[in-house]
Amino acid sequence: MHVDGGCHCGHIAYQAEIDPERVVVCHCTDCQILSGSAFRVVAFTQEDAFSVTRGMPATYVKIAESGRAREQGFCANCGTQLYATASGPGPKVYGLRVGTIHQRDLLKPARQVWNRSRQGWVDDLHDLPAVDGQP
User: Fold this and answer.
1) DSSP 31
2) DSSP states of 40-52 as a string?
3) Which end of the chain has the least Cβ crowding within 10 Å, N or C?
4) Are 87 and 73 spatial neighbours (Cβ–Cβ below 8 Å)?
5) pLDDT tens digits, residue range 17-75?
6) At residue 47, what are phi and psi to the nearest 5 degrees?
7) What is the pTM of this model?
């Protein structure tokens, strides 16, 4: 599936080919901290199927629990997290942040990972009162 997206301020844009059947919800503590939320939704793309079409993402390299260096791509202007990938040489798979994809409403997650770090209240969200805008 062809997707496009970018950061909140419009400084960075990208396009990619993804498999919509491989969208995941990640509950790891790194995703919780980096996203400022309880989880992050990710769609994967290969290096040759991903291109930045406007701007240049800034990067931050963190060390994952596995010990591998993971490059986090983001907009230095507005702070929007765009992707994560392996750091250094070699073939790369990019984990695109679904919230930055314009077609995000078509991307239903197929599985969840890092459930051991999942927040216990996530399943209870459907029980909360909801409104369609800011009250």
Assistant:
1) H
2) EEEEEEEGGGEEE
3) C
4) no
5) 999 999 999 999 999 999 999 999 999 999 999 999 999 999 999 998 788 899 999 99
6) -55, -40
7) 0.91
Residue 124: the pLDDT is: 87
Instruction: Tell me how far apart the alpha carbons of residues 115 and 55 are, in angstroms, rounded to a whole number.
Output: 35
The residue assigned the tokens 């791509």 is 73
Q: Residue 127's pLDDT is what? A: 85
Architecture of domain 2-117: Beta Complex (2.170)
Q: Tally the C-alpha atoms within 13 A of residue 68's C-alpha that lie toward its C-beta.
A: 10
Helix (H, G, I), strand (E, B), or coil: what is residue 1? Answer: coil
Contact 8, 66 (CB under 8 A): no
Residue 2's identity, in one-letter code, is H
Only one residue has tokens 């800011």, namely 134
Q: What residue spans define the domains of the chain?
A: 2-117
